[in-house]
Structure formats: C-alpha cells, structure tokens
Amino acid sequence: MSDPVSAVARDLAEIGRLVDDDDLDTALSRYIDRVVTTVPGCDHAAITVRTEHGPQPVATNLPAAVTENSHRPTVAVGPIGEVLAHREPRYLGDTRVDERWPAYSALLRRAGLRSCLALPLPANRTRSAAFSLYSRTPAQFDSASHDLILLFTLHAGSTFDNVSTYHHCRSLVTHLEAALDNRTTIGRAQGLLMRHHDTSTDDAFDHLRTISQRHNTKLRDIATQLVTAQDNGKFASVLSTLTSAPTSPSPS
C-alpha cells in the first residue's frame, strides 16, 4: 500500500490536469476540498492574492463573514497581509490569546475558528499570493502534518500559476478579438463611405473621424451605426443624419 503523501500527490496531479483542461472552477474547488479533507484538523483553506485594494481571496471555502470583511484595513494587516507583504510564513496559534492581530483574530473567533497557518506560495508571478489553512482547534498544524502542508503549498503555487496564466491568456484573446471586431467594423464603414462618396480610403476614414468628433462618440460606435444602417437598408438616411446633425458639446 502506498503512503498517504504519495496518494495525495497523485490526486493533486490529477487536479493539475483539470487546470490544463481549462476546468478552472472544478480544479480550484477540488483543490481546496482536498486540503480540508486531508490535512488533520483543517476546517477551511484559502488562496489569497495581494491587490491594490488589499488581500483578495481567489479560492476559498471560508465562511462569508470572513471573506466579506478580509479587505478591511484593520483586518488586512493580519497574518495574511503580512505573508503577502513579506513572503514569510505566519502562524496564529490561538485567536483567543494571540495579541499580534486583534482585528483578524476577532474576525476568526466570530466564525468559530481558533488557529491559522499562512504560507507564501512559491510560484512565478509579480503579485504575491498566500496559502492559508484554518482550524476550529487551537494550536493546530504542528509538525505531524508538516509534510502534507508543504506538499499542498508547493502544488498550490503551481496550480495558481496555471490559473493565472490561463486568465491572462483569456483576457488577451478577448482584447484581441474585440480589437479585430472593431477594426473589421471600421473597415466596413470605410468601404461604405468610399462607395457612397466615390472617395479614397484616407478620405473615408477622415469622414468617419469628423463624424465621431462632431458627435463626441467613439469612432467604432459611429462605424457600427453605419454598418447596421447598411444591413437594414437605411445607410443613406443615417449617414445624412450623422453628417448634418449639429456638433454635440464636449463633456466638461
């Protein structure tokens, strides 16, 4: 029979493949659930990133009362905030007696949590991230669970990097698709103006820009109006309205 750490490692590898297959919600949810069911005494877990607005959970099964208040300034200076700022581990052994982070300890106490271990994620990113475990039992997460916690921490860094890369790529693709759509629409509008006025590409673009400035409206929105009008058989009338309408006042 294989040892528990090896079994967990195989399961984490499977979760990593889910990330590769773009099933991100399932991957993160299974990851957090696996932490809670495997690490002795762990009742909740979270992955948190540092943002300009303070610590922001990106994966968590913490009670809503904790996550909804974790961005408050008095709470953000707690152990999670320090891990994100200094990339060093922090351990809150008992929320009833620890006096280092009173606001954060009080927040956890109200949720019935007594101890917290927060570790920096060893991963490649510009923004720091933290992996935190929570227990209803004080002085939890001792040396007996060290190997499991270390394994989860190392894998959390890899998983979070994969998720971050995926979201970055998706965002980039979305922006590129929008840019291509805008370029296509503007190109179609130029073609319509060239045919309507029997003019050059540059003159058609200047005409679009003039209308855009006249109406204080983005160029792509003017182009969309003209293309839609053409599709509805109303190009000439819409163009006439846009061309002859008075100049809109610029926003103050």
TrEMBL record:
Pfam families: ANTAR, GAF_2. The keyword Transcription regulation applies. It comes from Amycolatopsis magusensis. This is GAF domain-containing protein. It comes from the Bacteria. InterPro entries: ANTAR, GAF, GAF-like_dom_sf, GAF_ANTAR, WH-like_DNA-bd_sf. The keyword Transcription applies. PROSITE patterns: ANTAR. Keywords: Transcription, Transcription regulation. Residues 166-227 form the ANTAR domain.
